Amino acid sequence: MADQPNNAAPATNDERAQRRLRRHALIDAGVNPYPIRATVTAHAAELEERYADLEDGGVTEDVYSLTGRIRAFRKQGKIAFIVIEDCTAQIQLFCRVNDLPEADWALLGNLDLGDVIGATGAVIRTKRGQLSLAPTHLEILSKSLRPLPEKFHGLTDREVRYRQRYVDLIMNADVRETFRKRSQIISLIRRYMEADGYMEVETPMMHAILGGANAKPFVTHFNALDRDFYLRIATELPLKRCIVGGLERVFEIGRQFRNEGMDLTHNPEFTSMEAYCAYSDLDGMKALTEGLFKTIAREVCGCEEGHEVITYQGQEVDMSGTWASRPLADIASEVVGEKIDMDTPIEHLRELCEKHGIEPQDNWGAGKLLFELYDELGEQTIVNPTFVCDYPEEVSPLSKRKDEDPRLTDRFELVICGHEYANAFSELNDPVDQAGRFAEQVAAKGFGDDEAMGYDYDYVRALEYGMPPAGGIGYGIDRMVMLFCDAPAIRDVLLFPAMKPETITRADIASQLPETTDGTAASVDALADDAENGAANEAAAAGRGAEAPALKTGLSREQAFELLKQYNEDPFHIAHGQTLEGLMRYYAAQFDPANVEFWGQVGLLHDLDWEKFQDEVQHTVKAAEILAEAGAKPELARAIQTHNSDNNPDLPAPGCKMECVLFACDELSGLIQAACLMRPSKSVMDFEVKSLKKKFKDKRFAAGCNRGVIRRGAELMGMELDELFADVIEAMKAIQPTCDGVS
After folding, report:
1. Cβ proximity of 592 and 546 under 8 Å
2. 717 against 681, higher pLDDT
3. What is the pTM of this model?
């Protein structure tokens, strides 16, 4: 079949196109730019150590074959200097025309930064003291068709780093070191557990019953059984079945899946370790935890025994000695300024919750109220490793009650720097009690708790055969890696974290294809429809054609702000406009950097007419008239009107990315600001997704914020609700809006 041209091939002045031409030149010269294999007899770091004493100008007859990526390349007449980087370090290739075959010297003309090459030659040290390899043979191992970035920095580039982790690893040695440490930590955990007599087991990742934790699951369909299953949220219940079966010490390191938000310490797919030890209890789990963390501090962070002190995000964390154990009620008492516990009257606990911005639900008992005060206010105050103990039974459905007070459970959470790293129980093994706890969880579902567990008949049946007393614990492996690698965000320790879908255009796809195809390949349009996030919608994603000129509002920013103040006197309304302006500018920098000013004014003026007219149907219609009189372009009014199309069907609906962002951020940012006002700090900087989820579920809180509109905004953005929550909170932290007045 005749070759067919790819009608969207890249222009020849593009650097990627130039690299493709050099690829063709190599092929035309009979050189395969992607050979099957390569010879490696040494690595750069190994040679640096072995020849550390080689004098300046020294020459050896020791020949090695090295491979690596070109990081620097300089050619001067009959000499060329190439710096390559392998998995250990960088080393210089000192290339001389007389040392290389003609074809190998000619190869230099088609090399680029980023190419992977192999070199064979003797070790020398130049007169300037640079250890080098003097090649007698060069070969191309992989032709790089994309130029490497000069550097990665800042918020926008950080997003690129997470999405294109392969480039991040190429460019940043500290990132490679983080993932080497991650591997070392997980390997060390396995060795430590096995040395302590634990056996590693594997349990199913698909569960018929939701259990082992309170979390929203991912759902998948099992075709062979024609029923839905849950991707596991925890390994607890299968592992405790192993204890019933006589396996006295078991652990599992594996992935868990929770269909919840993404933030600095949460990813929907994460790694945990759970361990269970028959005939042990909470004290046994404390000893296990102290020993494990101190061992990692010594072997990974280089601490001396007895002085296990590390630094996490500027805070000194002292892991040495015996760690503190503190009742949850004591920490809650400390932060509210008075003694409270399970005997405190429920009404007073409700008053304290409301005073500190926590909206209690009608079905919350004393235990839940006490826990919420600790969880919202107390946890963040803890720095050094602390076992927070004596959790109320109401929030611990799988833990054994304390003998001295059955309202409390024999449970602890390990908290360091305000974050939870482990959760441990003296395991509940009374089948009748467990059945009752499950029944309470099912009842909680009736109150709208979609994270409550189901009734696991088989697990209760297992307990009926008799489970010995046991201690159990779960660790967040990703958070442990964050702690010991001093990483601020969970995405920094996940090779491929969950990300919002990327918009891929037809031009992007076409630039990767061969210039001609044999007719058996799919068209660019078909590939676009098949690509992630539908490249067919690329025009809508940007809100205009790819080559369209920058959008103009017809107003300066100063004119727009004066117009806002002319029609709005309430400081909150002005602050809300400024917040939306900041959010729109933030997202424009990601999605449409040529139109940051236009997006910003859309946000600033989106509620221009609300204070004076307050008519849901005519909202933004009046604004269009005001803007026209002020000399604004009609495009500005149209973009603003889309965010009220749910109340007025005659208005245009959100279509382009800018309009979807406005719709998604308007109500949600108002809810976030209202929630921040209830916090002691009055700030978004210490606000978390879990707090927003509670406010969102409570229809009485900020009742004017339409939850349906917020859900619709998530749909328009192609995001899960929790994902949108986390994304907008992160954006609001980035712009640091004031939540209590005009900035």
Report:
1. no
2. 717
3. 0.76
